[in-house]
Amino acid sequence: MRSALHAEWTKLRTSPGTLGLALAVIVSTVGSSAAVAAATGCAPGGCGQDLTRLSLTGVQVGQAVVAVLAVLVIGDEYSTGMVRVTLTALPRRTTVLAAKAVVVAGVVAVTAVPAVLGSLTVGWFILPGHEVVPRAAVGSVLYLVLIGLLGLGTATAARNPAAASGIVLGLLYVFPIIAQVVTDPGWRRHLQQAGPMSAGLAVQATGDVDAVPIGPWQGLGVLTLWALAALLTGGLLLARHDA
Amino acid sequence: MNAFGQVLRAEFTKFRTVRGWVVAAVAAAGATILLGLLPGMQGSCGRNGPGSECAPTLGPGGEVVVDSFAFAHRPLTGDGSITVRVTSLTSRLLDPGPDGPPPDDGSPHEASAREAATPGASPRGSRPAVVPWSKAGLILKAGTAQSSSYAAVLVTGGHGVRMQYDYTHDRAGTPGTVSTDSPRWLRLTRTGDTVAGAESPDGTTWTTVGSVRLAGLPPTVEAGLFTTSPQHAERVGGSLGAGTTGGPTEATGTFDHLLVRDEARSAGAPGQVARPAWEGENVGMPGPAPQVPGGDLERAGGVFTVTGSGDIAPAVAGAAGIGVSLARTLAGTFVMLLVVTVVSTGFITAEYRCGLIRTTLTASPRRGRLLAAKAVVVGAVAFVTGLVAAAVAVVLGQRVLRGNGVYVHPATTPTELRVIVGTAALLAVAAVLALGLGTLLRRGVTAVATAVAVIVLPYLLAMTVLPDGAARWLLRVSPAAAFALQQTATQYPQVANLYTPANGYFPLAPWAGFGVLAGWAALALGTAAVLLRRRSA
Lengths: 243, 537
What we know:
The complex is a heterodimer. Chain A is mainly alpha-helical. Chain A has helices at residues 2-14, 16-40, 51-54, 59-80, 82-89, 93-126, 134-158, 161-181, 185-194, 196-200, 216-240. Chain A has one domain (2-240). Chain A contains eleven helices and no strands. Chain A is globular, with a radius of gyration of 19 Å. Chain A starts with a helix and ends with a helix. The longest helix of chain B is centred in the last third of the chain and has 37 residues, at 367-403. By secondary structure, chain B is of the alpha+beta class. Chains A and B meet through helix 2, helix 4, helix 8 and helix 9 of A and helix 3, helix 6, helix 10 and helix 11 of B. Chain B: The chain crosses the membrane at residues 21-41, 330-350, 371-397, 417-437, 444-466, 508-532. Chain B: GO terms for molecular function: ABC-type transporter activity. Chain B: Residues 91-129 are annotated as: Disordered.
């Protein structure tokens, strides 16, 4: 496992796109958070909105880049045929996937910390005077890590990076829109509880927690289930199928 | 067959032989139709026996109107005038309890309003509030039937004195609120078909607010005092769990110094003919009657109040209005947009991925022509599937909604066509934009993510999380502006409502919004064409 980890880390570190994508996560998250905060333009502390959550809006944009980064970790190997070399060197396929998962989680966590902290800082400067809840910050970092794992699992299962990123982004963005459309309150609530993004982002809610369809940590739990399901499917297909 | 036709044919063959793309396109169209037909909404129209059908009330101009108010009136034959002094106008929010007034139409907003209101545990009853468009004043109406022609001069809760007539017309008078210290005198004068509204601070110096011609006004009209107060709505949350809250309001107007000058009667023998009796009536209002004075108000000469709820205005869809607009049936467009974006990006990046692009460019060396052929293929596929899906969703979706008792605002056939063709055009141009981005970025995953972020994400953010200002800005500049093509509801400044994108109100005019998307697509495709020619494949 140690050598597998080392190998995966080397691959990711030396792959040309990684640094750019990591920077893109930070820039897109902080940038869109700042844009939203600036466009909100309400009186300091008095616009009846969850300002912590508002200053973390960028996470919803940044997660797309995180998903792409994660998809590329295995997707690129399928594109280039590198996966055959990897599996020749490390025939235990679950170990390969586990090592990739650890590396992805680590890289995303390291990227997410400055992105989330940067968003909160920018949000605090533009809309000063609101209390910043640590749970929202820690939760957002964990959220991005789980999105990374979801992306990795999906890409392992789908084997085509473009299709995989389409599936992951579809999973993330379709649920909230359908929930917006479905007008039966019970159904809407269930959709928001089941969707990986709407459930996972409940962790950002700070104000009226009762108004959120699912508890903050339970929501993150739902996302964890999605990520685990994707990794398991990916792992199973990787173990069974010809690469 | 000419050269372009051959390239076109080759590209179409490539598209149709990739099973994943065809399946995705058909599945997306199916999902769009399904979401349009999803019976996720229940209403009460026609559900409570005969008489509960939500037949549209059409005003004199043919538009859908709401017409409900408390009316103290008497007949007025021929020319004449009516004058009154308003000394106060107060409003209250009525908390709709579980046993409160039933929703007009089971609109979603009411359902979510109830849900949002429950945890707040607000006390039952009512609380004072400022309702900017609550109205009290004089009205001269063709009859007491709903949606008949009228002219009114009135004071409002927050928009000063207004003269309004035939539901859609509104003219501003002096601003400011009315109180015992600063009362407002109002007067309506009828001369033939013309009705003039005037206001005065003291009853001696009069300013005309407006003079309008109401064609076909009958010789005898109903003239009198009225009060009404519209639904209020506000946004709560402002995040993923966002909803709207609102409910009915009620206003009370206090009047005195009522004077009716009846030319026809004064021309005859004064004192001989009995003065017509005043009647109190609630026009278009269900439920227990608020107090409306009857009897002889002119002789009483004192102070009296009229309490009413409702509105005399064009009907709007959304939180403060009734029912939903046509765009509700096209909610599934988003799913198609996502699929069209991914497939169109993949249509070119797949060639880069497996090296097929070199074969393609060898067979058809004119690169601009190749890109044009690809754009035509993805655009046409998106247009046709979008057209079918939108047509089915709009036509059948309306039936399902109406069958469920939901009030759907009627739209004219040209508007319906614009919505259906517009949705197809939106998908086609989005496909071309995605193709352009795919050609620029070449790497499948990066291109897909960028295209989704540029085309799909702005719409999602604007609809769900963003505060109103940011959402409107985004819907002006981003490709999502094209969703304005689906707007069927009209925005009236004299009707308070949440005119938010999520309720189907977009900041740009339909085809202007489409122009924004077309501009983005042209930019992407143009840059892609230049780069495709310059770069080695």
